[in-house]
Amino acid sequence: MTRTDSRGTSGARAAVVPVSDLLAAGFLFCRTRWGYRFRNRAALLRWQQRRLDKMLQGRGLHWRELPVIDKSIVLADFERYNSQGVSLAEALELAKASERSRDFRAELDGLTVGLSSGTSGRHGVFLLSSTERLLWAGTILARVLDSAALRQILSPWKPALRIAFLLRADSNLYNTVRSSRVAFDFYDLLEPLESHFEKLNSRQAELLIGPASVLRALAEAQLSGRLSLRPRKILSVAEELDESDAEFLERSFGVRPGQVYQATEGLLGFSCRLGTLHLNEQHVHFEQEWLDAERSRFVPIITDFTRSTQLMLRYRLDDVLRVAEHPCRCGNPALALAGVDGRADAVLVFDGVNIFPDVLRRAMALASTEFQDWSVAQSGKRLLIGLRAPSQEAEERVRDELTALFARYRLSVPKLEFGSWQAPAPGAKLRRIQLLAADARREGSTA
Ligand SMILES: [Zn+2]
């Protein structure tokens, strides 16, 4: 499928953003970048509490009395959880029509509608007003642009800043960033990645944005000489960025990738200049449902006090967040994370003991000189392992590492079954670790 725009280039669509919108985005940008200054974490949390109270008072609600909700509850009662009375059927119809036509500009009464890739079964749907879109754009630009990129945008005599966005779906969200100073190319992941190489090479984007698995594929192409990109900044979105992937990207492009932690539920975090992932606590309040006594991991329950179209009030996410051992030295008092462990069902359970994704990832990384990629799935008491470019030695090394891992947890080693690795479907999220059996449940302690 090819698509053409007014300039006749596939994928890159021109969109004119009104000056007023640009000014608004600029204002939000400045406020995000320079506006909020908190002396310490306590000051940030006090400010958050005031924002929460203010938002809820207007609705006659008390935060602690609100029930905790999740995706299935919101989808079952969609109209109640958005202020515009949009039904799930309406939202889904528009979002799916956009997905089919690959034209993502349609709106529903001025609202942007988007669909999240539903790897865990059901699609997530999001609704954003134009103001919320601007907030998103301003925030993301403020967080990801370095001062050189900023200078380039603000200097009319310099070429526009080029951003390459490799995603499954384009969105009005991204059009918001597009202007005469920001050239924004959307590369559709439902087309073969190789089909974009020529354009990627000729456009030479300064900012490369895509899911970790896609960036990894680009890095492989770069190393093999099929791509020759010189991005100044790389951003991983929509998937957790593995430490091994981050290192690989840095080796290939010479730039340390940053990451944005974003979901249908909102803009939840971004990495700072030191590479630490911080929660977006200037917009979202995070309650912690702790999973261990050491309080190193939690499932977040979020309340977004900047969004009013779709209400995110005490909304429980599927993710497991790992807290960084030390506060970040960058000065941002927002909570620093060691990582996001993707969907919670990627926590494997053997005899009631949780095996967290980062533990499993480390074991696989230790064994991984022999193979290029891997996947692990638990099915009851069996562990199904897929290795990309498998070999006898690779299987032996994986067997050794996993045996050591289970020994550390004083667990008997499950039955290890090796098979071949399967690349994720185009546009699908990469999930290396999956829990297939419905009978095994994560056993978390709630503090
Ligand atoms: Zn930091």
TrEMBL record:
<dbReference type="InterPro" id="IPR012685">
    <property type="entry name" value="CHP02304_F390_synth-rel"/>
</dbReference>
<protein>
    <submittedName>
        <fullName>Putative adenylate-forming enzyme</fullName>
    </submittedName>
</protein>
<dbReference type="InterPro" id="IPR053158">
    <property type="entry name" value="CapK_Type1_Caps_Biosynth"/>
</dbReference>
<dbReference type="InterPro" id="IPR042099">
    <property type="entry name" value="ANL_N_sf"/>
</dbReference>
